[in-house]
Structures are given as C-alpha cells and as structure tokens.
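## retry 2 of 3
previous attempt timed out at serialization; input unchanged, resubmitting
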Amino acid sequence: MQHDLQLRAAARAIYDACYPTDDWAPVGFDEAERFGTVHYRQAVGAAQQARAVLAGRGEQLQLPAFA
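## retry succeeded, writing output
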C-alpha cells in the first residue's frame, strides 16, 4: 500500500483514531504496517470502504495538510 499515499494516510488516521493507546493496540501504525497486524488490516479495510463510499459520491480522499 506504500504506493497509494492517500489510502495509507486514511488508514493511518483510522488506525490512530480507533487505537489511540497501547491499551487498544500493542504497536503504533508503522510497526503494525510492517508486521501486518489485525489492527492494521482492519484500518486498511475501513480506509478502502471509505474510499469506495466517497468515490461513489464523486469525492476523493485528500492527504492531510500536515503530511
């Protein structure tokens, strides 16, 4: 997914919102991505679903302003 920067940014935002502390996920987004954890796969799936919904409405995911 490294080649799709918008999807990766959306997955990171979802991951950070859903798993904000070590109580929710044992590792941060970068490690979760590297190891392909279930938390990471869930965040990617949510980002893909969000992209499909937004694309259906003629919208496009944008990179965060700080990226």
